[in-house]
Amino acid sequence: MSKIAQALSIAGSDSGGGAGIQADLKTFQERGVFGTTAITAITAQNTTGVFDIHPIPLQTVQLQLKAIADDFTIKAFKIGMLGSRELIKCVAESIQEYDFGYFVLDPVMITKGGVGLLEQNAIKAIKDELIPLCYVITPNLHEAKALTNINITDKQSAKEAALILQKMGAKVVVIKAGNTNNITSEICEDWVFTQDEEFTLRSPKFDTLQTHGTGCTFSACITAELARGKSIKQSIILAKEYISAAISNPLNIGSGHGPTNHWAYSLKKKNAKY
Fold first, then answer.
1. SS3 state of residue 60
2. Would residue 269 count as lying in a domain?
3. Residue 81 gets which letter from DSSP?
4. DSSP secondary structure string, 2-41?
5. Torsions phi, psi of 138, nearest 5?
6. pTM
7. Is 270 a catalytic residue?
8. 176 part of the active site
9. When you count CB atoms within 10 A of the terminal residue's CB, does the N or C end of the chain come out lower?
10. What is the structure's pLDDT at 186?
């Protein structure tokens, strides 16, 4: 049996390479983890927008997951955007059938700017079908509010939302707070609530448009570290360092919201110049 850590991403394909399956695989590779995938949709997109979405048939999604389960030893997996209630239920049934290890849920529902990506019945399906199964959930402020009805403005209100998510079944909640009214505009915060402790992740605010795929990359790094056998606290802290390096050393690709730099963290560790 191979000693190489193996992880799985269940998400859509981003033809622009900055988010979704592509971002997850790049992150897995950078963290020394062999990545497998179950693709839920094919998109036509680049840094300026999304121009077409083609959902994958449910049976094909199921067969992808079965193929992975039959031949790989998956220690951790993540789920990104699932576009419909039917797909959410389909995936939920499959992941209960197979042992894929730790489950990291990135509930891609609402963009950082507040634009909705899912219908209400799909959001309800996330609450009913996926959150009760997940180990870690990583919502942004808008997503956390949609899931809990808590308007998050500080760590205390974030804790209230986290407790609701934990009552739904999530073991660990990471609320990606970014810039909130109670802190300076130069600092970004993420609030972490485990079953045993709570802590805050802080980083400088980076003035850049090169942020496409940050949520995918952050959750993928947590998944990779869990697959490598790291503790949940170690995994989250390293993921924060990884995404901070990826954002603060931009590639400047494309004419819109460009992708993050997935190899920046590795170069930083080698003391390389950017």
1. helix
2. no
3. -
4. --S-EEEEEEEEETTSSSHHHHHHHHHHHTT-EEEEEEEE
5. -130, 65
6. 0.94
7. no
8. yes
9. N
10. 81
Question: Which residue among the candidates 37, 40, 138, 214 is catalytic per the annotation?
Answer: 214
Note whether residue 274 is domain-resident.
no
pLDDT along the chain (274 residues), means of 10: 92 95 98 98 92 94 98 97 92 97 89 54 92 97 94 94 98 84 69 96 89 95 98 97 95 94 89 53
Instruction: Please tell me the distance from the alpha carbon of residue 258 to that of residue 260, in angstroms, as a whole number.
Output: 7
Query: Which structural domain, as residue segments, surrounds residue 30?
Result: 6-264
Long-range contacts of 240-247 (CB under 8 A, 24+ apart): 240/190, 240/201, 240/203, 241/265, 242/27, 242/30, 242/31, 242/217, 242/218, 243/214, 243/217, 243/218, 244/203, 244/204, 244/206, 246/214, 246/217, 247/206, 247/208, 247/210, 247/211, 247/214
Total number of domains constituting the chain: 1
Which of these is catalytic: 75, 78, 155, 176? 176
Catalytic residue, chosen from 90, 134, 216, 221, is 216
The active-site residue, picked from 37, 211, 217, 223, is 211
Could you give the dihedral angle defined by the CA atoms of residues 267, 202, 21 and 23, in that order, rounded to the nearest 10 degrees? Answer: -30
Are 39 and 13 contacting, i.e. CB atoms less than 8 angstroms apart?
Answer: yes
Active site residue 35: no
Catalytic residue, from 12, 16, 213, 258: name it: 213
233 is catalytic: no
CATH assignment at residue 80 = 3.40.1190.20
81 assigned to some structural domain: yes
